[in-house]
Design goal:
heterodimer, A: about 325 residues, Transcription Regulator spoIIAA, B: mainly alpha, 2 domains, two-stranded antiparallel ribbon, 2 helices, about 20% helix, globular
């Protein structure tokens, strides 16, 4: 990995804009480690309008536009996604210099083949779907809102997507912790049998992280720093199976929240920088209105992007570290 | 710049553009194209000799690969890329 400080000016350029859009903050799952509060529903029409107008205002100067769909579960608000993606594609036709990318983090429950095909046609090129290992582990952690398991339907959706001829990347994120890691190899073998020859599917083996969820105390987190640890073993196992996977070396050392040209748009129109510290006062950096205008707290924003200017590795990798505390 | 906790010095406009201070522009060695047809004085460009590595982020190797070309010569817009991901 090159020195991230050699790239930082890319993260202030006006020619690039990345919006992480929370289409809805409701979710049909209640994963045991989730840190979200689900207080806000579908993105408000005035916010959707504001996002579209912002894109219109910026499109003539942009070379790169990325829309990342997040939530909540974004597929609970497909109308919002359709509306914004359709607008973005129209802008691309008017502005041929514009490179448009879109990706989505979804729990996969609603990602049927028909929905997948429609989203790919709208321009979503990457989907991230998560498993917590084989069915018996996954169904204990990634619970639906009624407390039932979710493995069978998500797996069936991926099987159905496997039959689609649409080109997209499906990142299958595998959560590993101290309890389930001995059973992950069985999941990898199952995955290889089902999807191993489909180069659209790629594995992303990740330790479960402490992100402030109410279930954090009950989880057995792994030490992830060791090359000889379980995560490294599982990645080697995936390699031996011939599975494509995303390694740590492919992850940017610079957090999106440190960049001046990346914003999170909440369903209620609040603007954040970080998708984890959602309710922290430091993260309430502004609002977007229906005209597409952003009212940003200059001092907070300057603090979030301080790493871009200073080149400090810590401030670039997680701007929340050492962020001056604000009390509401 | 005095340390890692020192905030940036520029400001954001109402469409989310960051306008660096003069000192920041110098620090980042940003290039400003005086001949740009639309003459947007504050339009910020990449350094011409940007180091090429893994320029963008995220768990998205497609984006990385496609963007690498963009970063090699940021003044040349990519308009001949095929639609859809490169796999």
């Amino acid at each position: 990995m090159s020195d991230p400080r050699s790239q930082v000016s890319e993260y202030v350029t006006h020619r690039r804009l990345e919006l992480i859009l929370l289409a809805t903050e409701r979710c049909n799952f209640r994963c045991t480690y989730c840190y979200e509060q689900f207080d806000h529903g579908r993105m408000e029409p005035a916010v959707v309008e504001g996002v579209k107008r912002l894109l219109s205002a910026r499109s003539s100067e942009l070379d790169v536009l990325r829309l990342a769909w997040f939530g909540g579960e974004p597929l609970l608000a497909r109308g919002v996604i359709r509306d914004v993606m359709g607008h973005a594609r129209a802008l691309c036709r008017s502005h041929p210099q514009l490179q448009f990318y879109s990706d989505m983090a979804t729990n996969g429950w609603l990602l049927t083949r028909g929905v997948f095909d429609e989203l790919v046609d709208l321009g979503v090129a990457t989907f991230q779907v998560t498993f917590d290992g084989p069915r018996e582990w996954h169904d204990r952690r990634r619970l639906r809102i009624d407390g039932k398991g979710s493995f069978h339907r998500i797996w069936a959706n991926l099987q159905s997507i496997h039959q689609s001829d649409r080109e997209a990347l499906i990142q299958v994120r595998v959560h590993v912790d101290g309890e389930n890691y001995t059973d992950i190899p069985r999941f990898l073998e199952h995955f290889e049998t089902e999807f191993g020859r489909d180069n659209r599917f790629i594995l992303f083996i990740r330790p479960v992280s402490r992100l402030g969820g109410c279930g954090d105390d009950q989880l057995d987190f792994l030490d992830t720093d060791s090359d000889a640890g379980p995560i490294a073993d599982l990645r080697r196992k995936a390699d031996r199976c011939g599975l494509s996977q995303i390694g740590d070396e492919q992850l940017s050392p610079i957090c999106y929240a440190a960049k001046a040209n990346t914003l999170v748009i909440r369903a209620d129109g609040r603007v954040n920088k970080c998708t984890v510290a959602l309710e922290r006062p430091e993260n309430q950096v502004g609002r977007i209105d229906a005209r597409g205008k952003l009212a940003l707290d200059q001092e907070l924003m300057r603090t979030w992007i301080r790493g871009v200017i200073s080149g400090d590795d810590e401030a670039l990798s997680c701007p929340m570290n050492d962020f001056p505390r604000i009390t509401m | 710049m005095s340390g890692p906790l020192t905030p940036a010095e520029g400001s954001f406009d109402e469409e989310g553009r960051y306008i660096p201070s003069e000192a920041e522009r110098e620090r980042l060695r940003l290039c400003f194209d005086e001949n740009e047809a639309n003459n947007q004085e504050d339009r910020v460009y990449l350094p011409v000799l940007m180091h090429i590595g893994c320029p963008d982020p995220g768990p998205n190797p497609i984006l990385n690969r496609r963007c690498e070309k963009f970063f090699v010569d940021q003044r040349r817009p990519i308009i001949d890329e095929p639609e859809g991901p490169v796999t």
